[in-house]
Specification:
single chain, 750 residues, alpha+beta, Rossmann fold, Topoisomerase I, domain 3
Length: 750
Amino acid sequence: MLKRLVIVESPAKAKTINRYLGPHFKVMASMGHIRDLPKSSLGVDVEENFKPYYKIIEERKATVAQLQKAAREAEQVFLAADPDREGEAICWHLHEILKKYNPKINRVLFHEITQKAVEEAFKDLHDLDREKINAQQTRRILDRLVGYLISPLLWKKIGRRLSAGRVQSIALRLICEREKDIRNFVQEEYWTITAELQASQPPDFKANLVKIAGKKAEIKDGKRAEEIASELRPLPFQLTSIKIKEKKRPPSPPYITSTLQQDSFRIFRFPVKKTMMIAQRLYEGLEIGERGLVGLITYMRTDSVRVSNEAIGDVRNYISGNYPKEYLPQKARIYKNKKKVQDAHEAIRPTSFDLPPEKVKDYLKKDEYKLYSLIWKRFLASQMSAALVEETEFQIKASQYEFKAKGEVIKFDGYLVLYAKQNASLEKKEEKALPRAQEGEMLKLLGLESKQNFTQPPPRYTEGSLVKELEARSIGRPSTYAPIISTLQDRVYVIKEKGKFIPTDLGIFVTDFLIKNFPDIMEFEFTARLEEELDRISEGKLDWLVYLKDYYSLLDKDLKEARQTESVKSKGISLEEKCPLCGSTLVIKEGRYGRFKACSGYPACNYKESLVKKEVKALEEICPQCGAQLVIRKGKYGTFVACSNYPNCRYIKKESKDTGVACPLKCGGTIIRRITRKAKVFYGCSNFPKCKFATWDEPVDQSCPKCGQEYLLRKNSIKRSPYLYCNNKECDYKEEVEPLKIWNTESEDG
């Protein structure tokens, strides 16, 4: 019997959905994008209305061949990539390469991966959203134009291995401008005076000096602070005013992508990339005991705080069944988006309220549990009663000196009950109680503390604060922040020190060059407007070609002028540092073995210092053997992760990637892509050393058409065409996969 073919992006997602759909469906994974613009050329014909030329991605050719074969044999094809612009584009590319094999193709949208959501999705089939595809294609073409037209200019004028990006360069500008603010910051000294006081009732409390003779207290040096302290010691202190007010502290709205990224960095120190990888697993499905694969959260790429009525009803039922009635407000909380958003998806929330974190803890990895708990509590809190806080303010006078003390007591914890056992870095705040004193009473001075302080420069960006700043300025989308941050570090435009970004001299120089030569593209507001225009294209309110032409005309004008600028490639990038040998200015140059610092007085002075070692990329991970920081190094066989404490510690991390294919030995493990010490790829079971299964060949999640073995192996051969063969040694099935054959199945614009 012919099966209905469903195509998603990942094997994990395919496995979860296949479990819900049953035997009449076959769910396969495209492994993400299957086509893209070629890496070797611009791939966009500007003269022909920006016609893109897509190619099947080299690593996806075998997958494409399998999908085409399955589509030919299927009764109907359903495209079920993620429900956003990127997912719509993946579906369009799939449609283009599959339509001649099976014209019966529909779009299916999953906003969460649960039994009910999947079943409902197949009752509401869609056609591809042309406007959404145009918007994504516009973004892709713009990114290619900026990257492939400006980057070669950087190679020619500055040096190799440099790149520019539409959002990447703006993010770098933020980091560089913050660094300049820090360097230009002039530190100023100031002093504060705190009095420790005792009222008629406990507890003792502290009050800060705020005014002197009715004016703001400004104490510039220690001498003046001591003079004031000497005057205060014999003076009587009187409590002149007491202000008590109650106020409600409402919960925050449920998470969207950017706020989840910010909180997971602030609380757990998870890099943005790690947060998104974990959230993807929680969304696609994890094994939860007898329930099997379960998608635990809704789609994690969203900028909307909207929540479905059904989910609101479910969470209110959960709250009423697990907490006293006063913790549930009479009416459901409806959150409004602060600005115009795509609103294609709900906020990030749990999919099922009978799976609290404690119930699934044993089935999740430590970091998965942390993130799931964070999402669970935030969503639960968003529909609970506000906390009731009593704020007390004392005003105290001692002659011409005025002091102020503030206290806060939680009268009703409301949603804060969820965070009662958590660290203060979450939602719970420490109480600071003041005594039950009487207005007008005299206070006893227990002591005075004078403290020297200095004004502080603005802090450097962390991953969390950079994401917050980009979102506040409406620059890019949260789903793109992780690769942008990685690129900035890969290009050595920035380095990360103690979790904070510091721009390198190269990063600052490239930024200044781009601002000078591409002022419009490097403007914050100009970049932010692009996201609004993409939304308008998605809604059919703006012609994508008109926008592309306007953008390109601006870019082309700047490019022509920038090509006339002087190259610094030969003389190097000038630094503020001086040569330790002769005192001349140092410059950064690029040689055969990478970048290095050199004296500008060369050849009279031969001072040179390699920067290759300094360009080692530091990671957040810790060495399991000695506790030092792990770094990415370059070796004979490419890059690898090793201990920064080398040669004292020789730990090397073995890189691996789960293929999602089940182990053929039925041990319950999956096949992991691993790399040997000599950078050779092999595939082994995740249950090693209990299970010893290993192979040099790539596993393909496809049954053998001859003997029914669960999956095939793809033989990787450089000299001959690759082919698929059966994992069963007793079966002689073999199918050659010719590269040319795969190439010809591409659509006309490839």
